[in-house]
Specification:
3 strands; single chain; 3 helices; three-stranded parallel sheet; 17% strand; Rossmann fold; globular; alpha/beta
Length: 87
């Protein structure tokens, strides 16, 4: 079976930051670790990018930002919404 790929939305947030850190520590378990970010926030992810994360420039409100991602076996954790729900 192929390794799963991950697209992280909200990676600079309160929950998303630690999620990104953990995924990067387990990077070899994934075929792709990608971060969805607006162009103005790309600089926040330079360390992750240097360690193999892919930066996808776009917005979670724009469906074209998800081009190249597969909905098969999709598990969605949206840290921003989770933080809003929990906090």
């Amino acid at each position: 079976m192929d390794s799963p790929s991950v697209l992280i939305i909200g990676a600079s947030g309160f929950i998303g930051g630690p999620v990104l850190k953990e995924l990067m520590q387990q990077r070899t378990s994934f075929s792709r670790v990608a971060i969805l970010a607006e162009a103005s926030k790309v600089h926040k992810f330079s360390d992750a990018q240097a360690n193999g994360a892919e930066i996808v420039i776009g917005s979670f409100t724009d469906p074209s930002s998800f081009k190249g991602t597969s909905p098969t076996n999709l598990i969605t954790l949206h840290p921003q919404l989770l933080a809003y729900t929990v906090g």
